[in-house]
Amino acid sequence: MQFSTYESSGRSGHAWIIIPLLGLPIIALLSLIYSYIVVYSPIGGVLTIFIMAGYIFGVGLTVSILGKWAKCRNVMTMRVLGLGCGAVGLWLSWVFVVYALINRSAGEHVGVMDLMLQPEAMWVIIGEVASTGWYTIKNLTPSGLVLWSLWAIEAVAVIGGAIFLATSGITQEMFCETCDAWCPVKETKYLQIDQQLSRAKLEGIDIMGLFTLPSSDAKIMPSIRTELVECLACKLTKGIRFIRLTETTDKEGKVTEKSENLPGIHIPPTAG
Hints:
By secondary structure, the chain is of the alpha+beta class.
């Protein structure tokens, strides 16, 4: 049997419609929750980093899930939509932060839509906040260049994270163009590998040579997990995914597990 690397059709499906239509309201809600936690949280510092990480994960996962549901097979489409959703999420989080700060400190009522539709006024308010700072960590109140630098890091993290996570739902998946459906995992097995293969560069691994490896157990490391994927409808579109599983132990005895997708992760459809 002749195998070759699987390549998707590159079609965008309904991603350009579904992700903005359903994703932006979800991202708006996530931005609202994120902003209010940041403004009203009594604890800053490291906790804020975890809160931001959770927000980034939520935005990226939303785009990823909706992209797969929309049957998008185009990585560039997902990255562009991830960029757009990340940028919108960042802007909305700022709108909600400013809204929360104004209504908390001044006791005044300013509408969210008023802020959203007046970006120039938003920048003026953000500049005023930056000049004085608005939170204190261990008797220090970040302001000026320091605060702008922190905000710049946040912006890069939010937008970059959204772009990175947006493709996670489709990059390792196989799609049956005939049935217009994703191929789920039908069977999973593990293959035993030695230390040399566990350290080898992914691009240098002979994919066909993996079929000669002995069987292993899910609890044994290092190993390679093989996943047989198959279209549930036609049973003709099939493929195999290979994931290398390894673990390392640091000086303190902490074990870290790592999974890596091998190149040529899919084998194309076969009839039979």
